[in-house]
Design the sequence.
């Protein structure tokens, strides 16, 4: 992974409407332009999705107003979008936070000006992303069940489900458990839309590690990982390296102002030459991008490096409850 030297590519000062933080963007190509839907939060905590456009994938201009604002059913929050294009329609998965529990919402658009919100999951679920094609005739989705107030001695895993129409979902199967991720003992979750290759689906995901129950309220470290899933049965993991793909190192990733040590990848764009631009939220304050290639991701999966975890993190040391993040 090669961090862009101009990182961060978006901060709150780049947002032309009231904004305290911008982070965790969805990404896609829209015509000849690069497009981000950016999670923005104002001083009162209300969260909307802003639209940013670029000609080169690095220098973005954000539109004057959010393109998606929370409705009455969203509890004032639209979180962590992902974009998947199916046919001529772009589908946006996002997290909604109404009083009855965290839910996955989905909206459809063809122009990123008007959106049809057509689905909410049951509580509690979060971090959903659609596959970019049907699998065995069905739509497929990765998600991560997750409660608003969650037990830190119960971690959360990545699941797969199928749908005939994007509204009714079933055949739920666990894909990856937190217990299989040395650096994700608190929770794991899917990131950008899966990338199809001849060898399988490349899936970038995040893992949150909670070291112990002492010190400040925020102690988690978020990293990015990658795994390879079977094309016909994506509940089958072909390869899952033990080492993370990216760990917080740069100053904008370790910035202690809000939540230090966070890399949260939610967008990926594959270029015609195989380059992959991975867009991520850094330290819950800004947007950054790093590049790799499809071949490098496959090499990392199929010929992984040995990973030795630096320290042990006993589960019993964690506090009993924490506000979700």
Sequence:
């Amino acid at each position: 992974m090669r961090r862009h030297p101009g990182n961060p590519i978006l901060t709150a000062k780049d947002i032309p409407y009231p904004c305290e933080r911008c982070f965790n963007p969805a990404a896609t190509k829209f015509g000849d332009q690069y497009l981000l839907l950016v999670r923005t939060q104002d001083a009162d905590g209300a969260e909307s999705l802003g639209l940013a456009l670029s000609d080169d994938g690095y220098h973005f201009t954000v539109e004057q107003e959010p393109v998606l604002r929370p409705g009455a059913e969203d509890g004032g929050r639209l979180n962590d979008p992902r974009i998947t294009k199916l046919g001529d329609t772009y589908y946006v998965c996002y997290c909604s936070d109404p009083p009855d529990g965290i839910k996955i919402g989905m909206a459809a658009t063809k122009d990123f000006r008007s959106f049809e919100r057509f689905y909410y999951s049951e509580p509690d679920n979060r971090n959903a992303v659609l596959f970019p094609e049907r699998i065995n005739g069905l739509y497929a989705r990765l998600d991560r069940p997750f409660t608003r107030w969650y037990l830190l001695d119960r971690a959360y895993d990545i699941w797969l489900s199928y749908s005939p129409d994007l509204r009714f979902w079933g055949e739920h199967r666990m894909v990856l458990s937190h217990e299989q991720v040395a650096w994700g003992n608190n929770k794991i979750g899917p990131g950008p839309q899966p990338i199809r290759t001849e060898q399988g689906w490349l899936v970038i995901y995040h893992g949150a590690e909670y070291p112990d129950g002492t010190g400040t309220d925020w102690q988690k470290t978020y990293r990015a990982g990658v795994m390879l899933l079977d094309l016909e049965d994506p509940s089958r993991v072909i390869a899952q390296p033990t080492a993370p793909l990216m760990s917080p190192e740069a100053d904008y990733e370790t910035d202690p102002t809000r939540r230090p040590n966070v890399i949260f990848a939610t967008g990926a764009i594959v270029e015609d030459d195989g380059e992959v631009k991975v867009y991520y939220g850094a330290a819950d304050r800004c947007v950054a991008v790093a590049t790799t290639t499809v071949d490098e991701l496959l090499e990392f999966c199929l010929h992984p490096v040995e990973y030795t975890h630096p320290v042990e993190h006993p589960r019993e040391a964690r506090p009993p409850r924490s506000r979700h993040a």
Remarks:
- The chain has two helices and 23 strands.
- Confidence is low (pLDDT under 50) at residues 312-325.
- The longest strand covers residues 21-30.
- Residues 211 and 272 are 40 Å apart (CA to CA).
